[in-house]
Design a protein that fits this description.
The complex is a heterodimer of chains A (about 325) and B (about 230).
Chain A: E1 7-18, E2 24-35, E3 39-44, H1 50-57, E4 65-73, E5 76-77, H2 83-89, E6 94-97, H3 111-123, H4 127-140, H5 146-150, H6 159-171, E7 177-181, H7 189-200, E8 206-210, H8 214-220, E9 223-228, E10 231-237, H9 238-243, H10 248-255, E11 300-302, E12 305-307
Chain B: E1 6-16, E2 24-35, E3 40-44, H1 51-58, E4 66-71, E5 74-75, H2 82-87, E6 88-91, H3 105-115, H4 122-130, H5 148-161, E7 166-170, H6 178-195, E8 198-203, H7 206-212, E9 215-220, E10 223-229
Parallel strand pairs in B: 3-8, 3-9, 6-7, 7-8
Antiparallel strand pairs in B: 1-2, 1-4, 4-5, 9-10
The chains are: A alpha/beta (about 325), B alpha/beta (about 230).
Chain lengths: ~325, ~230
């Protein structure tokens, strides 16, 4: 049945590095396949390359980024499109909820118009009905006094309100593929629940969401990919991954959740300058580390559960 | 008994309202609390409950409209000066705005060393950030080239140079992943055990507050509600 669903996004061997005085290997050899209706969450610690991966797919990285590999939206090779062709896809077929409530909105435009803009630009709606729809979308996120808020500028919103308005903007035109980068960052528990509800109510939309909020990831996704130090190290169906994590890093990450007692393994991710080195990037922190881990592990398939660890050779 | 290191008595703060027909709204309404040496007091509330406003008044970033703040039993005048200014520090929620974006981490970290008259060579700076898992190569980067977790660890390293007695932790881990969060909480616990530092921990996460705090005060619509030990 899975094979019948169209592949909306395919990423092949995608790597991103930033050359210069400080070399940074931000993303390394990532492969992804997202089918229509999938809800993929990419989780991992800050600095693991999750957001850079999204930005690279959407071609939103600056000129200092060196991107290699391929990314396809349906059958269109994204890295071969002109900027104009890319603009026609972004906001129409593919939308993006950026990270950071502070810089995702135009400070000179009223919030309602920004939420309505994709409807006007890509769905041919007139301004008045688009603004009415924007108010409806804001209401979905329980901002309160939505009609008045739609006429206000972003600076009058709190960070949490801006974050929710950004999500409303991202889903307004009903793009078939929605990318969201840390949509719940900084929101309180009640607002995180509201955001999860809104994502779960999206009909016919495919979601690729980067988040470090594990509970949120579990509540909105059908599949989860885990990144560590620029690499994808594990991927599985959501419940399978949370109930039976395989990679030692994923196990450690789940143990560090407050409800599990904030337990963690000492050590930090390697410096970006060391990320070019061979071997498993987690080996210096891993209790299962052995000689073999000095070689870079491939992705092993364990009954549909993918894991990049020599323990599952 | 009054051995509190920091005490708030009837603090109130009002802001101009954004709502039509309403001139002012009260963000914090007559809040009183005590913070004791070596304890972590959790201030738990949802967005807009007034917890950050209360915290910012306590550390001298906002002037209260009413009420008084006592540091070691003596009233503090806004803005704080001298010993209180040095010994009461804050770790912000958004690490990316804790640093001047035009300065390298080396330049930002130099300031507290200079304020305290401490030697500030590469070895001292590397040791300062090294205990938080940051590397000497990070010193040459500007904030934009560091991840949120790296920046927050650098911000904590910078705060600790001042040897604070009190740290306001304003949702310092809400933007971070769970492992970085657990590492920061663990470091803060150990630092508290060694130095007796008092923390006022602002959070909206009940599970995190229950794990980290000795006492929790809840705040809603600007009013403090329940106080109890965890």
């Amino acid at each position: 049945m899975d094979e019948k669903r169209e592949t909306l996004l395919r990423v092949e061997d995608l790597s991103v590095c930033f050359e210069g005085k400080n070399y940074v290997q931000a993303v390394e050899h990532i492969d992804l396949e997202v089918r229509a209706g999938d809800r993929l969450c990419i989780i991992g610690e800050t600095g693991s390359g999750k957001s850079i991966l999204l930005l690279a797919i959407l071609r939103l990285l600056g000129p200092t980024a060196i991107v290699t590999g391929r990314a396809f939206y349906r059958d269109r090779a994204l890295f071969e499109l002109t900027e104009k062709q890319m603009d026609a896809i972004r906001g129409d077929r593919v939308s993006y909820v950026p990270q950071g409530s502070g810089n995702g909105m135009n400070p000179l435009l009223k919030v309602g118009l920004q939420v309505a803009e994709p409807l006007i630009a890509h769905r041919g709606m007139k301004r008045r009905p688009a603004m009415d729809r924007a108010v409806e979308l804001l209401r979905r996120f329980h901002l309160g006094r939505e009609e008045a808020l739609a006429r206000q500028y972003p600076f009058t919103f709190s960070g949490g309100m801006r974050q929710r308005a950004l999500i409303a903007m991202g889903i307004s035109a009903g793009a078939e593929l929605l990318f969201a980068d840390e949509p719940t960052k900084g929101l309180d528990e009640t607002r995180v629940k509201l955001t999860a509800e809104a994502f779960n109510e999206l009909e016919g939309q495919t979601l690729v969401c980067v988040t470090h909020d594990l509970s949120f990831a579990r509540s909105v996704s059908s599949r989860v990919a885990v990144m560590y130090a620029a690499n994808q190290i594990e991927a599985a169906e959501t419940e399978e991954l949370f109930r039976h994590p395989l990679h030692p890093y994923t196990k450690d990450m789940l143990a560090a959740m407050p409800e599990n007692g904030l337990r963690f393994r000492p050590g930090y991710a390697p410096a970006h300058s060391e990320e070019k080195t061979e071997g498993c990037k987690y080996r210096l922190r891993c209790e299962s580390c052995r000689e073999k881990c000095k070689e870079t592990p491939p992705m092993f398939d364990v009954g549909g559960h993918q894991v990049r660890c020599w323990c599952y050779e | 008994m009054n051995d509190a290191i920091l005490e708030a008595v009837g603090l109130t703060k009002r802001f101009r309202s954004r709502e039509e027909g309403k001139k002012r709204f009260t963000a914090v309404d007559g809040a009183s609390l005590r913070l004791y040496p070596g304890e972590t007091l959790g201030l738990l509330g949802e967005s807009g409950s007034g917890k950050s406003t209360l915290g910012q008044m306590l550390v001298g970033l906002l002037r209260p409209d009413e009420g008084q703040i006592l540091y070691r039993g003596a009233p503090l005048a806004y803005p704080y000066k001298g010993e209180a200014r040095r010994r009461i520090q804050i770790l912000f929620q958004h690490p990316e705005v804790s640093f001047n974006p035009q300065l390298t981490l080396r330049q930002s970290l130099t300031e507290p060393f200079r304020l305290r008259g401490l030697a500030c060579d590469d070895g001292a700076l590397a040791a300062c950030i090294g205990r938080f898992g940051l590397y000497p190569e990070h010193l040459n980067r500007r904030p934009g080239a560091l991840s949120g977790g790296e920046l927050q660890r650098a911000a904590l390293a910078r705060v600790l140079v001042m040897e604070p007695e009190i740290i306001l932790l304003d949702e310092p881990t809400s933007m971070l992943d769970v492992i970085t969060q657990a590492q920061i909480v663990d470091f803060l616990r150990r630092y508290q055990e060694e130095n007796g530092t008092a923390y006022l921990f602002i959070t909206h996460s009940t599970s995190l507050a229950e794990q980290f705090c000795h006492r929790i005060v809840r705040i809603a619509e600007g009013r403090l509600q329940v106080e109890g030990s965890v």
